[in-house]
Amino acid sequence: xxxxxxxxVLPANTHGYEFGxxxxxxxxxxxxxxxxxxxxxxxxxxxxxxxxxALHPRTLTLAKLRNEAGWPQDGLKGLASFRVTGFVLAYYLxxxxxxxxxxxxxxxxxxxxxxxRLEYKFNAxxxxxxVVLIAAAGTYLHGPEFALWTFIWDNxxxxxxxNLGVAFFLAxxxxxxxxxxxxxxxxxxxxxxxxxxGNIIYDFFIGRELNPRITLPxxxxxxxxxxxxxxxGMLGWVLLDLAFVAHQYKLYGFxxxxxxxxxxxxxxxxxDALWMEPAILSTMDITTDGFGFMLAFGDLVWLPFIYxxxxxxxxxxxVQLGLxxxxxxxxxxxxxxxxxxxxxxxxxxxxxxxxxxxIAHLQYMxxxxxxxLLTSGWWGFSRHPNYLGDWIMAWSYSLPTAIAGxxxxxxxxxxxxxxxxxxxxxxxxxxxxxxxxxxxxxxGWGMAITYFYVLYFAILLIHREMRDEEACKRKYGDDWxxxxxxxxxxxxxxxx
Length: 496
Prior knowledge:
Distance between the termini: 45 Å
C-alpha cells in the first residue's frame, strides 16, 4: 500500500466529548459499579426487595442497613475472595481455550482507516453450547445442588467484584498499551477517532485503541474487544439465569412459569447473538468505539449482573402467570423478536448481497461515498427499527415479575405466619429456621428493581441512536440530510 493511500492511525479528534465529557466518564466509571452493588444488596433473600428500611427511611440506621442488606460480616474484605477470583479467571481461561481449539468461521472485518482488514475467528456459539452441555450434565447428575449453581448463588457479590476487577485491569492495560500505536505500523493498529482527547479520565473510559490485540501462548492472536463483546459476559448472563432457576427449585421444589419464560427469552437473545456473531463487525462497538472501561465494564459486569436481576428476584419470590399470563408475555416477546431479527436480517442481506431475491426489491439511495442507504422495508419504517424490537423484548423480561416486591420474615415453622401464607412462600434457610416471603407493604416497590432494565434500555437505545446519528452526519454529510427526508422517524414512527 502506497504512502499516499494510507491514512494515519492517529486521526484528528473532531468528535468532541460524549457521555458528558470527563465529568460524565468519571461518574460512570465509579458510579455504575455502585449501582451493581446497590441492586444486589437492596434486593436480597435476607430481608426483602427492596429492603424494609427503604420503605421507612426515617427508621434507617447504619446497623439496620448492614443487617437488612446482608452486608458481609468481615466488611469490605467480604466483597472479594481469592477462591472466587481463581474460579472466575479459570472461566475466562476456558473461554479462551474454546475459542482457540474449536473450529470457527474466519471472517475479514470492515476496511480500516489505515488500510487493510483485520481477521476474526468466530465460534462463540459452539463455545457457549459446550459450556451449557457441561452444565447440563452436572445438573443431571447433581440436580440443583450442582456445584456451579450453588457457587454462583453463594458468591454472587464476590462475582461482581472479580469481574469488575477484570474490567478495570483490561481497561488499564489497553489504555497504557495504546500509547505504543505508531503511524504506519504493519500490525493494523490504530486509535479510535473519538478516543484520544488528551484527557486521561475520558480516554480511559471511552477507549483509545480501536481494536487492541495481543498474542498469547497456545491461544494465539486475541482480539480483546471482540472476545469481550460476546463471550464471558453474554454467556455469564445465561449461567446466572440458570443458577437462579436452580436456586428457586432448591428452595421451593418447583420452577415457576415466570422464571422459565425469562430464562428462555434471555437465552434466545444470547444464543441468537452468538449464532449471528459475524454481524458484530458492522456494529459501532467494533467499527467506531475504542476499547476502554465503557465496553469492558459493560460487557463483563453491567450486562450479566444487571440484565439478570429479574431472574434473581424470581428465585426468591416465584410468580405463577398461568396460561393467560404466559400467552400475553409470549406475544410481547414474539412481536419484539420479529421486528428485531427481521429488520437486522434485512440490513445484513442488503449489505452482503444486494441481489438476494429476499431484499432485491427494496429501494435505496446512493451516497457520494458510494454507500447505499435503504429507504423502504423495515429501514424505510424508521432509521432504527431494530432498536424498537429490542426495547419491546425488554418488556418481556420484566413483565413476568408482575407487580414486584416482597418482604422476608424469619421465624419458626410452627404457626408464626398464619394468615400470611396466601401471599407468599415458605422455605427453609437451614436447620429448623424458616423464611416466609410475602409481598406485604413491599408490593409494587420492587418494580424499581425488576423494571429498571426497561427504563435503562430505553435510555441506552435513544443514546445509541443519537450517537449513530452524529456518526452518520460525519460520514455522509449532505446525503444524510437528504436521507432523513425520506426516512423521517428515528425509532418509532409518529413518536420519535
